[in-house]
Amino acid sequence: MRIRKYDFDYSRRAFMEKVATGAGAGVLAPLWSTIAHSADDISKAYPDELLSIEMYTKGRIKPGDVVTADNVDIVKDLLEPICYRQVKEQGRRLNIVESTKDVTTLFNHDYLDVTLRNRGRAAFGPDGNVWTDGKVGSPWIGGLPFTDPKDGNQMIADMTLAWGKHDYSQYAIPAWSLNPQGEVAYSQDFVWCELNTTARGDGTVFNGMSDKLRLQTVFFTGPNDIKGSSFLSIWYYDQRKFPDLYGYFPAFKRVRQFPTNQRFEPLVPGITFFLSDAWAAGDPMLTWGNYKIVERKPFLGAVSNRNWNGADAKWHRPFHGGPKGKTFLDSYFSLVPEAIVLEAEPTGYPRAPVSKKRVWIDARNCHFMSTITTDRRGEIWKQFELGSGQFKNGNAVLNDEKGRPDWSWLHVHSHDIQSNRMSILLHAKEVAGGYKTTFQTGGVDVYNKFLTSSAIARLGQ
C-alpha cells in the first residue's frame, strides 16, 4: 500500500511549474530515467491519480465505463475541444480502459531500444537541423533525438524525424468520408509507404542518401475512378527545404511535379486529410515556427491495444454515432498521465489556410494523440485524432521479426468541424489490389517498387 504524500492538486501545480521552467517529463521522478531503469513500470514517475482514471475522477469514471453525453463533463478537462463536442453533441462514445504503466507497449521494440542506446547524442546545429553529437553533416542515427523534450523545437524534432517509428512501413488503409448528413459520400482504398533514408533504427544510411530524410508514397487501389492515382514525396534532411512532390494520374498518363508548398489540399476528392496533417508533422519542421509547449496535463487519448481488432479477418471495427450511426469508429481511450501540448504556426506558408495548430502528445513515447487546427480567422477548424497501440489483443498478435508484438497507429478521425465532414482512416490488414500492411521489406526492393517517380507511374497503370 502506497502512503499518499501529495494532495490531489500536486500534479497540476507541478505541470504548471514545468511549463514555466522548461523542465522535463515526470512528476515524482524524471520519466526517462525511470524508463531507462524499468520500462515496464513507470509508476514511480507519477502519483496514483495520474495512472488511474478511477482515482482521477474520484470514482465517477472507471475502466470498463463508457463516456457519453451523459457523463462527458466529468472528463471535459481531459479532452481536446472537438472530441468533447463529438461526445456531447454527436453521439460519440469513448470506451475507457486501464492506463498502461509498461512503456514497451507504446513503441516498436527496436525503436525503443535504439532510443535508449542513443540517448543524449542529438543536438541542434546553427542551421536548426538535428545532428548526431552536434556534428553538422552527421544525420541523426535513430530513435527519439530528445527523449525528454523541454521546448517546442525538441518536441517537433521527435515527431518529424521518424514518423512511424519503423525504418520501413507499409500501411493498408481503407478510408470513408462522410457528408454532414452522416452518409458515406466517398470511400477509398490506398497504400501508404514510408522509408527513412536517415534517422533509421538500424543506424545506416539507405543507399547513401544522407541528404534525404525519407521517401513516402501513397497510391490508391480503389474505387475505379481514382484507382492508380499516386503521389511521391521526397523529403530532404535539411528541414528548411520543402519536399519534392510528384503525382501520377491515370487519365493524364504522366508524372507531374506539384508546387512544393501545396500541403493543405485533399489528395483526392472528398477526403479531409491533407499531407500537412500526417503524424501531426506532415511538413518539414523548419517550414513551421513559433513552436512552444503551452501546457502539460493528463489527457484521455486513444492509446490502447484494444484499438486493434486482430480477431477480425480485415482488422475492421464497428462504427457508431452521428446522424446515421456511421460517423465514429468504436475506440478505446486510456488516461495518459502526462500530455505535452505543443503549439506552432505555418511561418513558411504565407497562403496557408491554417493559422495555428495545437498538438496533444504522449510524453511517454513523444507520439501525438490529436491535433486541432484553426483557420485564418482563428476559429477551430479541423481535428486529426490518432489511435495507437500494439498489435496484440486477446489471442490475436502481429509480431515483428524478432517475435515481439509490433506497434503502430491504428485509426484516424479527420473531422472538419466547420463543414461537419468526417474522414475515417483505418489501419487494416489488406486493401483492394492485395496490398498488405507490413513493417519489413521481406527482401523486396521496396525503393524501386514503390518509392520512385517511375514506380508511381507503374503503380498507376
From TrEMBL:
Record PROSITE patterns: TAT (PS51318)
Pfam families recorded: DUF1329 (PF07044)
Gene3D superfamilies: Lipoprotein localisation LolA/LolB/LppX
Organism placement in taxonomy: Bacteria, Pseudomonadati, Pseudomonadota, Gammaproteobacteria, Nevskiales
Protein name in UniProt: Secreted protein
Keyword annotations from UniProtKB, A to Z: Signal
